Structure formats: structure tokens, C-alpha cells
């Protein structure tokens, strides 16, 4: 049976239309948990428009893929499996080519900051394969997801989201809602978090903008500045192999901060395999290598690299990649 339509007054149809449009607009906007409080804080502290901040956050999406990615970091692997990820023949040869191509700028910045250029190259090599892979996630989505939907690290990532929303426009490579980066919200060739852009970003090309995605002077100087501000020692050692004797005292360390004079570690049964200053402050890292435990003396500069990424595996990979790049660049230069 067909039911005949009932005529509806035109004025009533218009009212229904307005209600539908309002409901559609409300449904399209995503209000994230804690969004109102976050917007209020940023607006009060920076003077930015609450409407503009809400519009940015309304457009951000919680992404399950980001939550999945942070649950399986590479740093959870043992050294024997971690090292081959970053110390590949391709990454080393690409680093040598990159170093040679930008040698003048790298050495200028290295001299200015007192940071050996190969370590700047190694950071961008480990982080983004020399700028080729800076991340596919929207930075805003990443920080909203981890700051507002990931309780284990919510405090840290909410602070980073707040910093992102608070940064002046000239501290970013583009509008906030266009920035892409890692699943953790790091961006640019050196993968800086928003607080690191604020504290360590450098406008080295003097164009009025800190651009860590498109300006090599800004990228190199910001990495070097990060190291220096965390206590990098120009010309200081990073890591050196140690050989334990049969009676070596077991040592457990909570982080990579130097804790003892090298001579104390030697007295406990760990011999250096190269010439080192006995009074140098050091720590000891024990890593699971392919042929059993590896013992490493680590120094102040190693600790500084762990300020970039807290994993000692990361710092070891950066150090070994830097050494391989420097050696390869020197050989290439000598062969010319």
C-alpha cells in the first residue's frame, strides 16, 4: 500500500533545514577530551584566539595507528638487532655523500658550535635518512592522539601539544595543520619536538623563520645547538670498547650519565682497548651483541646524545654512524 504524502508548510521545512544544518556541523566537529581546558590555557598564556585554537583541534583526528606504533618502539630490540637497522652500508654511503655535498656549511656550523660535523650528519641520518623520510603523520594528529588519548605518556605529549599550539608562526615550517612528522609528533630533518623547537631551534639563515624542514642552515645549527645546550664537549670522547677480566665487578647503571673516573672502572676490572685519559668521567654500558655481551665506556658526549633520545642504543648507533661517515669522507677526500 502506498501512503500519500502529507503537505508540510514551507516555513516548517525551513526550520527543519536549519536544525539539520546545525546538527551536521556539530557532528563534523570532534571535541577531544580535555580540549576546552587546553584551549583555555593556551589562549590565556599566548593571547591566541580560542576560536582559532578550537578550529585547529576540531580538525585533528585520533589515530589508532599512532597508538599501535608507540607500543612497539625500535629501542625495545637488543643491540644485535637494533644496530643493523641504522648501520647499513646504504646509510653509511649516503652519509658520506651527504657530508661531502654539504661539507662547507657543516664545517662552518661545526666550528661555530664546537660540534664535529659528522655527528650532525649522523643525527639526520638516523632520524630521517638525510631528510628523505621525515614522517607521514600529521603532527597535530599525533600529539592530539598521544596527549589526549594515551594515558601512559599523556602528561608529556599534552605538554608538547600545548607547545605546538603556543609556538609563534615563524618557529614552524608552515601552518600547524599542514605539518607532518613522526608518530610521536617530531618534525623536520632532525625530528624536533615542539619544546625543542622552542628551546634549541636556530634561524641560522636569518630569514626570520626557524625552518627545520627546508633550511639546511637552520637544520644543522639547531642540531648543533641542541648538543651544546646539553653540555657537548668539543673534541671529547663519546664511547670506547672495554674488556672485562674474569673478576670484573658487575655494574648496573640507571642512565648514561658519567658516574665514575675511568680509573675506577679499570680498578673494578674493565680495561680500555684504546688510549684514554684515566681521570675522564665515564659510565659503563653492557649491550647484547651478536657474539655475546659488549662492554662500552661511555662519556659526557654519549650522555648528551641520549638527551636527544634516551636510549643508549640510539646514542651508540649515532656514534658509530658518525665515525663511519667521517672515515669514509676522509678516504674519499684523500683519493681525489
UniProtKB/TrEMBL annotation:
Keyword Signal included in the entry's annotation: yes
GO molecular function, one term: peptidoglycan lytic transglycosylase activity
InterPro entries: Lysozyme-like_dom_sf, Lytic_transglycosylase_MltB, MltB-like, SLT_2
Pfam hit, one: SLT_2
Location of the Transglycosylase SLT domain: 37-323
Residue numbers annotated as active site: 127
Keywords: Signal
Signal peptide: 1-29
Signal as UniProt keyword: yes
GO annotation terms (biological process): peptidoglycan catabolic process
Protein name: Lytic murein transglycosylase B
Organism from which the protein derives: Rhodanobacter denitrificans
Amino acid at each position: 500500500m502506498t501512503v500519500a504524502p502529507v503537505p508540510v508548510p514551507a516555513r516548517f521545512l525551513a526550520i527543519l533545514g536549519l536544525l539539520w544544518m546545525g546538527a551536521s556541523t556539530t557532528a563534523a566537529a570532534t571535541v577531544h577530551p580535555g580540549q576546552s581546558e587546553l584551549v583555555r590555557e593556551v589562549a590565556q598564556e599566548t593571547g591566541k584566539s580560542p576560536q582559532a585554537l578550537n578550529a585547529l583541534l576540531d580538525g585533528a583526528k585520533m589515530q589508532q595507528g599512532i597508538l599501535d606504533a608507540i607500543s612497539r618502539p625500535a629501542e625495545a630490540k637488543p643491540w644485535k638487532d637494533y644496530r643493523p637497522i641504522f648501520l647499513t652500508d646504504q646509510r653509511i654511503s649516503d652519509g658520506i655523500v651527504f657530508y661531502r655535498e654539504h661539507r662547507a656549511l657543516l664545517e662552518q656550523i661545526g666550528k661555530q658550535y664546537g660540534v664535529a660535523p659528522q655527528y650532525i650528519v649522523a643525527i639526520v641520518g638516523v632520524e630521517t635518512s638525510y631528510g628523505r623520510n621525515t614522517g607521514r603523520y600529521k603532527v597535530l594528529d599525533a600529539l592530539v592522539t598521544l596527549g589526549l588519548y594515551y594515558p601512559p605518556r599523556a602528561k608529556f605529549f599534552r605538554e608538547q601539544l600545548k607547545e605546538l599550539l603556543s609556538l609563534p608562526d615563524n618557529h614552524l615550517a608552515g601552518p600547524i595543520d599542514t605539518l607532518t612528522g613522526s608518530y610521536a609528533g617530531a618534525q623536520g630533518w632532525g625530528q624536533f619536538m615542539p619544546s625543542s623547537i622552542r628551546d634549541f631551534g636556530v634561524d641560522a639563515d636569518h630569514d626570520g623563520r626557524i625552518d627545520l624542514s627546508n633550511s639546511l642552515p637552520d637544520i644543522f645549527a639547531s642540531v648543533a645547538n641542541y648538543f651544546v645546550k646539553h653540555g657537548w664537549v668539543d673534541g671529547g670522547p663519546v664511547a670506547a670498547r672495554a674488556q672485562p677480566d674474569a673478576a670484573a665487578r658487575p655494574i648496573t647503571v640507571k642512565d648514561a650519565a658519567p658516574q665514575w673516573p675511568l680509573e675506577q672502572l679499570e680498578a673494578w676490572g674493565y680495561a680500555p682497548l684504546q688510549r684514554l685519559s684515566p681521570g675522564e668521567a665515564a659510565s659503563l654500558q653492557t649491550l647484547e651483541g651478536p657474539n655475546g655481551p659488549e662492554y662500552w665506556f661511555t662519556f659526557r658526549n654519549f650522555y648528551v646524545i641520549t638527551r636527544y633520545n634516551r636510549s643508549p642504543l640510539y646514542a651508540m648507533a649515532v656514534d658509530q654512524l658518525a665515525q663511519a661517515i667521517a672515515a669514509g669522507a676522509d678516504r674519499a677526500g684523500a683519493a681525489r
